[in-house]
Each structure stands twice: as C-alpha cells, then as structure tokens.
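Help wanted!
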Amino acid sequence: MMAAHYRLDNLVAIVDRNGLQITGATEDVCQLAPLDEKCEAFGFAVQRCDGNDLGTLVRAFEAVPFRPGKPSLVLAKTRKGRGVSFMENVARWHHGVPNDDEFSRAMAELEAAEAAMA
Amino acid sequence: MELAKANLEAFAATLLELARQDSDLLVVTSDSRGSANLAPFAKAAPGQIVEVGIAEQNLVGVAAGLAAAGKNVFAVSPACFLTARSLEQIKNDLCYSDRPVTAVGISAGVSYGALGTTHHSLHDYAALRAIHNITLVAPADNFETREGVQCRC
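Answered by r_m:
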C-alpha cells in the first residue's frame, strides 16, 4: 500500500510462486489465487513470467517500471526443486534432508545440467 | 533544560535539533506524529519524515531499508504496537541484520490508561530483553530522554 501511495516505480517485488508449502499445494492449504489481481488491487503493476527461465526474467526486469508511477511486481511461476528430478515439485523437499544416495544423484543431475550449459 | 519539561517535549525538541544538523536523519512514523508530538517536526522538516500509515511491521522494515541505504533513522510508534506487532521485524530486520535504527516506543507502560489493555505496554522490556544485539533505554525524565535521543544509533 505504501509503495503504491508513494508511487515508487523504481521498486520491484518478486514473488517466487512455486505453489508448494510444507503441508502441500498452497492452493489446497489456503488459496492464494488470484494473486495477480490481489497485488494489482494493492497498486502494483504485475507481470507474470516463467521464473525458471533466465531470459524471460531478464526481459521482465528490463521492462521495469511496467507502468509509470506504479511499483512493479514479477509473479514468477517456478517449479520448486527444479533441476533435480526426484525433488521437483514434491512438497516434502520443502525441508527434506537428502541421504548420501539422494545427495549423489542430485549432484550428478546438477553437474550434468551445468556441463550441458557450458 | 526546564525541570518540569515532559519526556515527549524533550524528545521532539532534541530530534529537531539533530535533524537540523544532519540532513541524512529521517524519522519514520506510523500515523503516530500526533501522539509522538512530532507535528511541529513534520512542519519544520517535511523532507525528513516518512509516513507509513498504521502499519508497524512495515514501519520497522522501511526503517531497516533506509538504514541499509545509509540514512540515520528513528522509527517512532506507540510502544504497545512497536514491540508486539513488529517484534519479528525488530528481531530479524534490525537486530539480526545489524541495521542501526533507533526505535522509539512512545506511551510505554500504562500511559494510555483508559484506552485499555490493547494499548498498554507491559511486555516491552521482557520481549526485547530476549533479543540479541539491541540496547534498551528507558528514560525516566526529560534529561535522560535528551541524552537517549542524542545517543542514537
């Protein structure tokens, strides 16, 4: 409310909308949607984007302010645990501690992905 | 300094003196400029007061942000709300993050009397004493109030 009141259009809020919390899906535990409309009602100019895609994020930040005179909010849809197949989008990994085998498998996947990027 | 001067008068006068010497000094209020006797400050130094509305958690968060940007910040709010509603922000945004902010809780204890238990502040010292990296000052008179404000973060 304050950011909108003072027309802080150099302010950017980022919501990591991964859709999970420790109990399960955010929308099952206590619904947040429609988050974009709620943020707009509080005076933010909102852009949705794929938060796991760096190029899309950069384009969003380059477009700030989304509307002159309004604070900007990037609603970044993400997959929690992205990059580790058995952790991705699984609520228990909100605070899970990997055992030795899980740790090795996770690191192998991440290192393979890193090598593919180089 | 007059013997009979009230704490709030000494607080507002000292704060204005400091503000005139320091353009980086900012006062953040949560609809509390009247109760903190800061209306004359707002008139005399309108560029050095930031109003956040009735939003004590945001008051402390904004104060921490301004301090991180190099401002010398006073966050002023009734003690009952400042030390309960925004206790987490005091713990995390100020103390844990080591942000030099002077938080001023006005009307402590049972100063608000007839406004009842919602406005009483009997927990403040107990709550804040349990937090690391904070110095607590409870000025007993206008002399100590002046000294306390001058010893700001």
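OP: Thanks! One thing I noticed: Chain A touches chain B through three residues (CB under 8 Å).
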